[in-house]
Amino acid sequence: MATKKVTVVISEAPSPDVSERVRMTVGLTLDDDNEVRVLLIDDGIYTGLGVDHEKIGIKEMDNGLVMFGALGVRSYAHSGSVKERGVSVKKFGVVEIGDNEVEKLVSESSIIFA
Questions:
Q1: Contact assessment for residue 69 and residue 26, using Cβ atoms and an 8 Å cutoff
Q2: pLDDT at 53
Q3: Which of 26, 60, 94, 112 could connect to 89 by a Cys-Cys bridge, CB 3.0–4.6 Å?
Q4: Alpha helices, DSSP H only, in 6-113?
């Protein structure tokens, strides 16, 4: 069977819904035919900063983000979103990419969860 390029887009700030999306992403790696990538864009880039567990009550999200590297999930952050918010997303192996790379990532995807 051919490899499916699966892209999970996270565009919202950290929340219980985003935590579920992170857990779903980990689950997508169980199918060996999936090449899983995560795109952090807009307020989703805050997910790449790590989470203050006490303030928002999400305990497992950072664990999922740490697991991405071990599971072969590539994590990307839209550089325009990063710059606009004045943050740095160097945690969890997140790589910044520009508009052209985002367009390529999305256009090459077999499946997109947004």
A1: no
A2: 61
A3: 94
A4: 16-28, 53-56, 61-71, 79-85, 99-107
Domain 4-113 in this protein, CATH class: alpha beta
Write the CB contacts of 84 (distance below 8 Å, at least 6 apart in sequence).
Answer: none
Nearest Cα to Cα of residue 79 among 51, 37, 42: 42
Residue 2's alpha-carbon distances to 5, 64, 111, in angstroms, are 10, 26, 13
Cα-based distances in Å from 70 to 9, 29, 65, 75, 95? 20, 11, 10, 12, 16
pLDDT tens digits along 52-62: 666 666 667 77
pTM over 0.85: yes
For residues 50 and 14, is the Cβ–Cβ distance under 8 A?
Answer: no
Output the six-digit token pair for 104: 């390529």
